[in-house]
Every structure is written in structure tokens, then in C-alpha cells.
Amino acid sequence: MKADVTDRKLAPEGKRRILWADADMPVLQLVRERFAKDKPLKGIRMGCCLHVTAETANLMRTLQAGGADVALCASNPLSTQDDVAASLVKDFGIPVFARKGENVATFYKHLNAVLDRRPNLTMDDGADLVNLLHTKRTAEARNIIASLEETTTGVIRLRAMAQHGILKFPVIAVNDAATKHLFDNRYGTGQSTIDGVIRATDMLLAGKRVVVVGFGMCGRGVAARARGLGAQVTITEVSPLRALEAVMEGYDVRPMADACRSGDLFVTVTGNKHVLRDEHFRRMKDGAVVCNSGHFDVEIDIPALRKLARKVHRQVRRNVDEFQMRDGRRIYLLAEGRLVNLAAAEGHPASVMDMSFATQALASSYARKQNGRLQVGVHGVPREIEDWVAELKLKAMDVRIDRLSPEQQRYLASSSEGT
Ligand code: ADE
User: Fold this and answer.
1) Which domain holds residue 249?
2) Are 368 and 41 in contact (CB under 8 A)?
């Protein structure tokens, strides 16, 4: 089988990790069982560009069980778990094109290798396959029934493309499903980002000033977990509404021009570029640590940091680069400014990816079932899928909830019952 991974001999460890993660993905397991029976993706060629992790491996197994012919490449050059990639190829017969630390040319070669298999359904985490199908491989866009998008950054891009009238096929914004962003973005990013920072630096967070740049779902998660570990948390925002929410949550809110002076740790989670830049690096304290948990590595202006530095020591510790300023201050950059939670840790825990990936799998089946009826544009995940995933997750957690009585249902449906 054609594939490109770092070392197929790593497969046994990868398989152990895939099965360990699977044990914490009960909803995805159920979907897999159902898919194995019903084969909703039979005859479909799926091209997937996701972080190549143990959790993603279990999604790939599910799509395969549903009858899809699946191929996978990485959605980030640093997030690939090489043992998992090896196991997917060797133990599960899934073509994977991903090597941890691959350069940009190889990253694109791998995206193209997936598209060379002529998929008719694509799944992205950051819209990279869709982007190629709209720029370099436009003739192939007509083969695509639909595409599924996993992350906020990707959805923002796709919405912009739809608005400009250039989107060529229907897209399902899986990120926007409640069963995805309310949990994965908040609790997943919150925990895995702090995990990445600690693995990279071994920093004690208690008593530190942590500046979280952006108070979207991911920012909320990071802020809450940093606060839980005893840090004093500052939020920077551009949205008045989000800033107000942060204030009322009890966070210190201020502009970055001010916050940059006092932070011990900066975490960017905005989806925008250069939210930490020259003017901020100039004011940071000696020893400040900067990292990113947003999708692309553009949030920290690394070229500006490099320009300001007298010396750069790569890898003073694994995943830590030291930038020595001309005035002697040192600034530490984690994971080259790429997703710190996936590059320095293992990404979100399986239990939360369970919901995201069960939603992905069911949305794939839904897209297929629509059989060309979906209009070109960005679509939500049907409510029944969200409800089903939430119900199954609660059941797996052994949590029971109340049901409306017939009288309560009538009350809610009525416009006349009042005082
Ligand atoms: N995104 C964040 N965490 C992830 C994980 N564990 N697997 C796949 N994608 C992710």
C-alpha cells in the first residue's frame, strides 16, 4: 500500500495507544458498530486532513467500518504521532501520509497524495484540502459531494469563501455543532494547552500571571484551567461582548500593550495573525514564555521576534526555543509557535474527542445520504445528530436526566397558558 510515515516499526506502540484511546471513546465505538452493520459510506472515497493522533485513528477506523475507502494526511506538520501513523498503515490498512516534523514541501506533498486518490468526500481540520481544491486542483472540485470542517479557523475561511461566491461545493461546519465546540474547544483546548505548556517547560502555574489572548471557546477553556491551577489570569480581547463576559467571569481584562509588561506566560487562541508582535516583545519581562494554541502558526509574529533577538538558541529544552534580546532579556517560544497542545502534548483527551469525532462520523454519513441535495454553502450539523451524541455521551457517563411530562410539553407548546 502506498503511504509515507516515519517508521512502520513503531506500529505496535501506536496500536496500544489507539486502543487505549478507544476505551475512552464509547460514543464513537457505538457509531462504529452501527456503521459496520449499515455501511452508510460504502463506495465513498474519503480524503481526510486531520491531526494524526490516536483519537483520529479511531475516527478513521469508524469511517472504514462504514465502508469508506479512507486516506489520511496531517493538518499540521508537528502534530503527527508517528507510532499512530505507522499502526494505521500496518494494522488497519489505512494509507497515511504524515511524518512528525515534516517540512512545508512535504506537508503539501502529503496533502496532494491524499487528493491523488480522487476523494469524493473530504474532511479537514483547517480547510487545507478545500483550499487546494479551490486553487491548484480546481478541476477536481466537481468530484466532491461535500466536505466536513473540524475547526473554527477553517469554518471562518469557508464562510468567507461562500460569501465571496467562490465556494464550489457544500461544506458541513462540524466545528459549529454544540457537541463539538462547547466541549472540545473549551475543555479539550483548556486542558491540553496547559498540558503542553507544562510538558514543554515544567512551569509551576500557581502564582504566575497568565495572559490569554482571545476569549472565544478555546480562550475560556485555557483561562479556566490556568485559574484552577492558581494562576492570575489576564484576558485580552477585541470584542466588547466577550471582554465584558471575561470581566464578569472575574478576569483581569486589558489591552495587550499593557498586559505584555506583566505576563509570565502568554497563550494565543484568537485565529488571527500577529496578536503578539514587535511592540509587545519589546516590553515583555525577562523569561516570558509565549505559545500558541490557535490553528495556524501566525498568531505570534515569529519573524519579528527573530529580528529583535541577538541570539536564538534552538531547543534549550525540547519544544522550547530561547530568544535573547539585545538588552539581555530572554523570551521563550514553545513548539515553534505551532499548536502547543498537539506539538508538545498529545492534543485533547480521547473522552472529549469522542464527541467531536462521533459528530464527524455521523455528519459524513448525513452528507452522503443527502446524495447531492445539499446546496453549495456552509451547513450546520442536523440537530438530531447533536442530540443523539449528547444522549449517548451522558449514558456512557452513567448520568441520567429528567423528561418533560405530557403536561409540561403541552404548556411549552401553548401560547395561551400563563398566570
Ligand atoms: N485536535 C485537538 N486535539 C486533537 C486530538 N487529540 N486528535 C485530533 N485532533 C485534535
Assistant:
1) 187-343
2) yes
